[in-house]
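Hey,
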Amino acid sequence: MSNIVSVSGGKDSTAMLLKMIEENIKIDRILFADTGLELPETYEFINKLSDYCKKRIGIRITKLKSNRDWDYYFYRVIQKGKYKGNIRGFPKVTFKCWWQRDCKDKLLSKRAGKYDTVFIGFAKDEEKRCKIGTNQRYPLVEWGMTEQDCMDYCKEKGMLNPLYEKYGFKRLGCWCCPKQPIRDLKIIRDYYPDLWTRLLKYEQDSPHGFKPNFKLKELSKE
């Protein structure tokens, strides 16, 4: 039986990992599912965190990556059903994200055996997301650590992803995610112009746009 820690580079999973190390909780593997859509600062931070783990517990972060990229899935033509003939386009905000399912969740699941314990960084604020009766464990919930607690803890340890303070991101993850708040989208627009151009092209190509009742091009006019 192994203890597997899943990290994303965000404050919650980072706080979980750091505190597990501090509390001397056994860690066998640390996994980062790379979607290929993280911002550059997150990749740099994961490398920094990996070096820290190697120094403290002798384990580096293992990076997992799908054999197929975002464009393959985005432009894949639907073969049956109501939307047959259309490309898939963006994940719909009202459903579970197919990109997370196919390029994160499945990769992590393949690395965890039946009797392994997978540690997930859901904060106390997100307790409703916890899956009871699985091999997953949620230390932050057990410790009563909120998202703000995680932010403060990472700052205290000098191990906070710089995107939070550099630009003021509220959440981290795929730069093309339709579930991003407007505030974060404006940061992409203002500081990552190449990615913003790609995002506008994806919106134009997606059969259902970026998300309901909202168009990215409206932000370009501000």
